[in-house]
Design a protein that fits this description.
By secondary structure, the protein is of the alpha/beta class. The protein is built from six helices and six strands, in the order H-H-E-H-E-H-E-H-E-H-E-E. A hairpin with a 6-residue loop joins strand 5 and strand 6 (157-161).
């Protein structure tokens, strides 16, 4: 199972501090990034459409860290690119997030991933789009208050906090 071994961040970590943990010293928000994170944290449906390289994944990583610190459920990230998932697991580690992937390349790890999810040991579940049509995945129970992130090829990030 591809599972990051991160430890949780301090409760209600400051967004600027989290940004530095993710990107390194001197990191600053691009125009609109902080507002997008704050919208998700406020429980508003949030759509972010930006160019490649703008830092859309930063929005869901920072929001996930704060939401998990608040006791919210697992964030589901849907991405068509397995190579991006590998890069994103490293980002999760930098923020102290426990992330797992379920995709066509790690079928032998699904049982362990599902057990970790059931035990609320997963902050972020990253899946490939074809998992959505998989009957076994459809039976997977996430915790209440999930955050959904979709990364289709053209509309790179869609973040929606599930109703509580």
């Amino acid at each position: 199972m591809t599972l990051s071994s991160a430890t949780p961040a301090a409760p209600e970590a400051d967004l600027d501090e989290l940004l530095v943990r993710l990107l390194g010293p001197g990191a600053t928000f691009r125009e609109g990034q902080r507002q997008a994170v704050e919208a998700v944290l406020a429980g508003r449906r949030t759509l972010v459409v930006q160019r490649t390289g703008w830092g859309k994944s930063l929005v869901y990583w920072l929001a996930t860290r704060v939401l998990r610190d608040r006791g919210q459920g697992t964030t589901l990230v849907i991405s068509p690119l397995l190579s991006l998932m590998r890069d994103q697991l490293r980002a999760a580690d930098r923020l102290g997030l426990r992330a797992v992937t379920i995709n066509s390349g790690n079928v032998e790890e699904w049982d362990r991933a599902e057990a970790a999810i059931a035990n609320d040991e997963v902050d972020v579940l990253m899946i490939s789009p074809e998992r959505l049509s998989n009957e076994r995945f459809g039976q997977l129970q996430l915790t209440e208050g999930e955050t959904l992130v979709v990364r289709p090829k053209r509309l790179h990030v869609f973040v929606e906090t599930a109703p509580r």
